[in-house]
């Protein structure tokens, strides 16, 4: 199949997608993901696709059937005292993705990181593979690294999104700029050349704030979301997933979406 055909596993006829990343097990403690099969089953009817590690792709194949599956191709570790920040490490290939039935791959892209040169080379190698295999590449592009909200300025997010597109990403996953407006993000999306999906980051514990961020993203022209912890660490995962879907696919207001909770 072509890349466009593979992307149809994630993007609906409206050109938008609701993706649930559950690929956190190699990076952070995963409260809420102790039983990935249960998480997948609980929201499968609501979301369009999942981002998974190779292990989850292998062990939850039947639960993932019929949904878009994106294989995480790298491993990344947030920094902590005494642990050097080497950035993401590329581990898997487009061939691995095809072996486990995934329609896409995802890799971190960390512009401004001290190891950005190796990271860019890893991303470029993955994209080069994708041209032959027709496996779409989603680059998760963030300034310096994950969980650095102070660095997610309008200028920085604008640069990293365009850089990922210039490298050849088929889709860019990024953060909504800290303190950014709808107009700010619209300029970024308009310059991206490829679809942009917005991540959720750490669990907010604030449903209205999450839904408002997603609403602003969609109003700015984002093609959907890839929200993980704010769903599977929520006390009502299926309900918050429905609320998010109502905004992304139904163009519902924040107030209307909140009523689904």
Please give a structural write-up:
There is one protein chain. The protein has a single domain (3-258), classed as Alpha-Beta Barrel (TIM Barrel). The protein contains 12 helices and 10 strands. The chain has helices at residues 3-7, 36-43, 54-59, 61-64, 94-99, 116-133, 154-167, 182-190, 207-219, 229-232, 237-248, 254-258, and strands spanning 17-21, 49-52, 68-72, 74-75, 89-90, 104-109, 137-141, 171-174, 196-199, 224-226. Helix 9 packs parallel to helix 11 (237-248). The longest helix has 18 residues, at 116-133. The termini are far apart.
Q: What topology emerges from the helices and strands here?
A:
Blueprint: H1 3-7, E1 17-21, H2 36-43, E2 49-52, H3 54-59, H4 61-64, E3 68-72, E4 74-75, E5 89-90, H5 94-99, E6 104-109, H6 116-133, E7 137-141, H7 154-167, E8 171-174, H8 182-190, E9 196-199, H9 207-219, E10 224-226, H10 229-232, H11 237-248, H12 254-258
Parallel strand pairs: 1-2, 1-10, 2-3, 3-6, 6-7, 7-8, 8-9, 9-10
Antiparallel strand pairs: 4-5
């Amino acid at each position: 199949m072509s890349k466009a055909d593979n992307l149809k596993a994630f993007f609906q006829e409206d050109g938008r997608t609701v993706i649930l990343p559950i690929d956190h097990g190699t990076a952070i403690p995963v409260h809420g993901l102790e039983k990935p099969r249960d998480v997948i089953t609980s929201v499968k009817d609501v979301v369009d696709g999942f981002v998974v590690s190779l292990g989850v792709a292998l062990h939850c194949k039947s639960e993932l059937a019929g949904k878009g599956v994106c294989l995480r191709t790298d491993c990344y570790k947030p920094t902590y005292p005494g642990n050097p920040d080497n950035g993401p490490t590329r581990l898997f290939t487009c061939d691995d993705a095809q072996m486990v039935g995934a329609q896409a791959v995802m890799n971190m892209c960390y512009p401004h990181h001290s190891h950005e040169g190796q990271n860019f080379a890893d991303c470029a190698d993955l994209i080069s593979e994708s041209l032959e295999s027709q496996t779409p590449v989603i680059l998760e592009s963030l300034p310096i690294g994950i969980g650095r909200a102070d660095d997610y300025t309008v200028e920085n997010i604008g640069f990293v999104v365009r850089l990922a597109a210039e490298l050849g990403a088929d889709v860019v996953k990024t953060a909504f700029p800290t303190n950014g407006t709808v107009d700010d993000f619209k300029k970024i999306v308009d310059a991206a050349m490829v679809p942009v999906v917005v991540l959720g980051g750490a669990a907010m514990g604030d449903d209205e704030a999450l839904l408002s961020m997603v609403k602003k993203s969609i109003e700015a022209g984002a093609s959907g979301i890839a929200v993980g912890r704010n769903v599977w660490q929520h006390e009502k995962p299926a309900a918050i997933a429905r609320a998010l879907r109502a905004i992304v696919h139904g163009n519902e207001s924040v107030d209307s979406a909140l009523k689904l909770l």
